[in-house]
Specification:
The complex is a heterodimer of chains A (318) and B (342). Chain A is 71% helix and 1% strand. With 318 residues, chain A is an all-alpha fold. In chain A, α3 crosses α14. Chain B contains 13 helices and eleven strands. The chains are: A mainly alpha (318), B alpha/beta (342).
Chain lengths: 318, 342
């Protein structure tokens, strides 16, 4: 027995090193981001998270418009994408005729394979004019609400949320589909045995798989937070805090991608790196909260094993 | 077993010999502004045809990044649309010389429904539009300058650069000169706090924003307006004339500066005085150290610049740039002698 263990030690040590390496890399990223943004941290402190001004000429920087833009666009995208993604998952795993199953799976995965810059181009040339027409055609009473105020540019929060939703749907739906597939058929059969209708049986399966589904939703949220190119091409790139869906706004990933190469002075560079640090922290917090949520749900529903969904990707999967 | 080892050794030797043969070529690296990238690519390709052993490699990463890489000495030469600031010159490990290479122009492009005519703009009007003070196309100030053109009451949507850019630098440098309010409220830099409008990435981004959004106005390099066949307006110069950007009007802008050129060539020629001058013109500069470490590469770059300032200038007009005036070229040839090539 001891001999077998010793023979395996290389394998154990090797895989252990790889696991630690990954944790080390994430830690190193955090440390390096902090070090490179020290100048900006010393200058602005915690006010950086609260200030709305972004002025490279005067040397005043604040991350609030970008934090707002990132969170607003991602949450909107999530609200739009989750029902659709769940609908796709339920349809494919429960209701779909067997012949259609494979083609539908293939098509949704295809959507995930499209590079985000292609989504951005499609956004500028197809989505933005369509949204502009939609915005212009809304009745005056709706237009006077703060959420729909402003000139109908097409570019803005609504276009960004739509592009993000389309990008998030394939990820969430494929994970949700896998999770639903792993619900043991005994659950469904028990529901039918108790006299449930088709819909009630599906609801029972969804309840059983709830932690996995939350994980799928959080995966989509993580992707939406870090998305860069597609968003910067349709969001209008104007650093302002606004509830209006029509207003052009800005996200953290977009401002870093746009301004990094030309940021010549040290404070400007440090401020941009600090925005990267803020994004890193927010992503970690979101992932941690979703993990805690899954654990608490797993504990309360004693048996729910749930296919453990992968953690949301670190920003940069643009 | 022995034969495979000897084959391996033979293979490695061949590879090394090949590498050595390739290394006999001189390779020089530079980085900087995107604005002159088309003409620089053309020049490096043409120069390579004349001198097959010299390869000059240029990455168009932006003026700011080019200056940073030059200061860190990861590249041999830099390129910028806005001259280095005194702070940047101090950070450099040695003295950096600026050499103007070509002239370019930035034009106001617009997209107004049902208006195909050429509009006249004055500097203060452009500043007020970009400040967000003039918000409709049929504003009194615009219609006064353009009688006879039926301007609609559409809202003006301003399009600007989201990324930092030398094109922005040239545009806001001009606006600062014609509008004290712009100068105090916004200022000059490759990236500014735009009072209003939407941001696009690159000249192409702004051009496509303007092309797609009815009622919009933006600023792009002349070549982009020409190639995308967009409407661009005339701008009023210091002499009061409304001038359209062209090779002649841009060269005229440099002509006035040639007589008062400072010895380090760091001069802004926006809003230049004189007749027939296009006011939103600018030099673009190549940056070289006065005493670089690698003397051989320095000699190559000096020879290249002498060629670019001579024969190279004829490639400029077809790519949308204006060649430098004779006076400036003469001054530069003299300045090139300052670079230590041994």
């Amino acid at each position: 027995m001891a001999q077998a263990w010793r023979k395996d030690i290389g394998f154990r040590a090797g895989t252990g090193v790889f696991a630690l390496l990954l944790i080390g890399i994430v830690g190193a990223i955090g440390v390096e981001l902090t070090l490179q943004s020290m100048k900006s941290i010393n200058q602005f402190g915690l006010d950086f998270w609260r200030t709305e001004i972004w002025d490279p000429v005067a040397g005043e920087f604040g991350a609030l418009p970008f934090i707002w833009g990132t969170l607003y666009s991602s949450i909107l995208a999530l609200l739009l994408a989750t029902p659709i993604a769940l609908g796709i998952a339920v349809f494919i795993s429960e209701l779909c005729p067997a012949a259609l199953r494979q083609p539908l799976v293939f098509l949704t995965e295809l959507l995930a394979a499209i590079p985000s810059i292609v989504y951005g181009l499609w956004g500028i040339f197809v989505l933005v004019p369509a949204v502009r027409t939609l915005e212009a055609s809304l009745p005056g009473a709706v237009r006077s609400l703060p959420m729909f105020s402003g000139p109908p540019l097409g570019l803005g929060m609504l276009s960004a949320a739509l592009v993000l939703a389309i990008m998030v749907i394939p990820f969430s739906s494929s994970v949700a589909r896998e999770v639903l597939k792993s619900v043991p058929s005994a659950q469904r059969e028990a529901a039918y045995a108790l006299g449930a209708t088709r819909f009630e049986a599906i609801r029972a399966a969804l309840f059983y798989a709830r932690t996995g589904i939350i994980g799928a939703v959080m995966l989509g949220f993580g992707r939406a937070l870090g998305e860069t190119m597609a968003v910067t091409m349709v969001i209008g790139n104007n650093p302002q805090v606004s509830v209006s869906l029509f207003a052009p706004q800005y996200t953290m990933a977009a401002v870093i991608a746009n301004e990094f190469t030309e940021a010549a002075d040290e404070l400007y560079l440090a401020a941009l790196v600090e925005i990267g640090l803020v994004l890193f922290i927010i992503t970690l917090v979101v992932n941690t909260m979703s993990r805690l949520l899954i654990w608490s749900m797993a504990r309360s529903g004693a048996k729910a094993p749930a296919a453990e969904p992968a953690a949301a990707p670190v920003p940069g999967t643009a | 077993m022995a034969s495979s080892i000897s084959r391996f050794v033979a293979g490695v030797t061949c590879a090394l010999a090949l590498a050595a043969g390739v290394a006999a070529q001189t390779q020089i690296n530079g980085a900087g502004a995107t604005f002159p990238f088309p003409i620089y690519s053309k020049w490096f390709a043409e120069y390579n045809k004349l001198h097959a052993d010299i390869r000059i490699n240029y990455q168009s990463v932006g003026s700011g990044a080019g200056i940073q890489q030059l200061i860190k000495q990861t590249v041999f030469f830099g390129a910028t649309d806005g001259p280095m600031t005194p702070e940047q010159m101090q950070n450099a490990p040695g003295k950096v010389l600026h050499f103007p290479t070509v002239l370019g122009a930035v034009v106001p492009v617009y997209n107004i429904p049902n208006v195909k005519d050429e509009l006249k703009f004055s500097g203060p009007i452009l500043a007020d539009i970009f400040l967000g003070k003039i918000t409709k196309w049929n504003d009194a100030a615009i219609t006064k300058l353009n009688p006879g053109i039926n301007l609609p009451g559409t809202d003006i949507t301003v399009a600007h650069r989201a990324d930092g850019s030398g094109t922005t630098y040239i545009w806001v440098d001009f606006l600062s000169k014609v509008s004290p309010e712009w100068k105090s409220k916004v200022g000059v830099n490759t990236s500014v706090k735009w009072p209003t409008g939407v941001g696009g990435r690159g000249n192409e981004g702004v051009a496509s924003l303007v092309a797609q959004t009815p009622g919009s106005i933006g600023y792009v390099e002349l070549i982009y307006a020409l190639q995308t066949k967009m409407s661009y307006g005339t701008v009023q110069n210091m002499a009061g004339e409304f001038v359209k950007a062209s090779v002649q009007s841009v060269t005229a802008a440099a002509g006035a500066a040639a007589t008062q050129m400072p010895p380090d060539f760091r001069v802004s020629i926006t809003n230049a005085p004189g007749k027939g001058v296009y006011p939103v013109s600018s030099f673009t500069w190549l940056l070289l150290y006065e005493s670089p470490k690698d003397k051989a590469q320095a000699k190559v770059m000096v020879d290249f610049l002498k060629w670019a300032l001579g024969d190279g200038q004829k490639f400029a007009p077809e790519l949308g740039y204006a060649p430098l005036p004779e006076g400036v070229i003469k001054l530069e040839m003299a300045a090139l002698a300052k670079i230590r090539t041994q």
